[in-house]
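Task card 7
Instruction: Convert sequence to structure tokens.
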Amino acid sequence: MGLQYASTECTIYLAEALIGMKSYAMAQSKLENALNNSERLGLQDLLAQSHFFLGRTLEASGHSAGAPDQYRQARQIADSIQKEAHTDTIARRSDLTAIYTHPA
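Output:
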């Protein structure tokens, strides 16, 4: 599963770069692929990141109505990861910090 994890993670990084380049439609497409792969493979951390960046994409592209739901899903998944780990250090993980620091 290592290569599938890396591939999905790279898709999220690509989407993040596309957001920075204001290529929102392409970023959204990549993030929807990452969402599907993360869910299918049970990669909860990448699923949370995908939801978070999809929220950013929707917000930046002017479709902000759907963004809060994406942010909420990202936070719920991150919270479940934290609860399962029985530690509060999850909120300090570099890949999940933005989810916890983003205003709800």
